[in-house]
Design a protein that fits this description.
The chain has about 100 residues and is an alpha+beta fold. The chain has one domain. It is about 25% helix and about 35% strand.
């Protein structure tokens, strides 16, 4: 979905996005889709990105910390892959903690 619309709120340059914050993207065909921030990630260069999800379309997007859509689809996919890997590791670690007695 990267590059297929624009974020109305928050605008690039505004306050950084926070977990569970929602915003609306308007697609090029005029539809408005609400996304929720489900993760905040930082790359090795200390740039921050927000991983966002919409149940309505069952779709993910990656934005800058301030809500601007990424134009680089490869970078967005890399961030999503890293996010899912970290989430899986975290889930595995939580499951193993319950096994210790």
């Amino acid at each position: 979905m990267n590059g297929n619309g624009e974020a109305h709120v928050p605008l690039e340059g505004g306050e950084p996005l926070e977990l569970r914050e929602t915003f609306v993207l308007e697609t090029k065909d005029g539809r408005e889709i609400e996304f929720e921030v489900i993760g905040i990630v930082e790359d090795e260069d200390h740039r921050t990105y927000a991983v966002c999800y919409t149940e309505e379309e069952d779709e993910f997007v990656v934005t800058t910390a301030n809500g601007g859509l990424l134009d680089d689809d490869d970078l967005a996919q890399e961030i999503l892959d890293d996010f899912f890997a970290l989430a899986e590791e975290s889930e595995s670690a939580e499951g193993n903690e319950g096994d210790e007695r």
